Amino acid sequence: MRQPYKRKRAVTDTTRSWSEHTLPPVIRRAIIALAVGAFGSGMSMRVADPMLIRLADEFDIGIALASWVVTVFGFAYGVSQLLFGPLGDRYGKVRVVAHGCAACSVTALLCAFMPDFTALLVARALAGAMAASVIPLSMAWIGDVVSY
């Protein structure tokens, strides 16, 4: 396991600049990449909310039934976190997040091409399951690598 980055002790003299107390560039770039992935994961969760009326019209169903695209995503997102925690510990958090981001992209694209509502529900459930790995494991990795 990688050792946490230890921040240098604060000094009272003013000769040291603030940059000496910041994170190394590798960790900083990794945090930025994880933030971009977390943004995509969060967007995939909320992308269907404003489209409910359009989905109801396209599939000729009621809005209450169309709202299931949000429900199945949220349910799969919540249940799948039970799986991704142990997977992140076993195979590495960053590796699982990277695969989760790729799978989240593929399943979001898959949702765009679903011909009927049932297929869209299945695709949204898969998208929710894949998006579940990104945000929690990103925060866990940052907690492992960056000290208080």
Main β-sheet description? none
Class from helix and strand fractions: mainly alpha
Which consecutive residue ranges, at least 5 long each, have pLDDT under 50? none
How much β-strand is present in the residues?
under 5%
Number of strands: 0
- What is the helix content? over 70%
The shape, in one word, is: elongated
- Count up the helices: 7
Mean pLDDT: 87
Taken in chain order, the helices and strands follow as HHHHHHH
What is the distance, rounded to the nearest whole angstrom, between the alpha carbons of the first and last residues? 18 Å
Task: Explain briefly what this protein structure is.
With 148 residues, the protein is an all-alpha fold.
Features:
148 residues, mainly alpha, 7 helices, 0% strand, elongated
Structure description:
Helix 1 runs parallel beside helix 5 (93-112), helix 1 runs antiparallel to helix 7 and helix 5 runs antiparallel to helix 6. The chain has helices at residues 25-46, 52-59, 63-66, 68-91, 93-112, 117-131, 134-145. It starts with 24 loop residues before the first helix and ends with a helix. The protein contains seven helices and no strands. The protein has 148 residues and is an all-alpha fold.
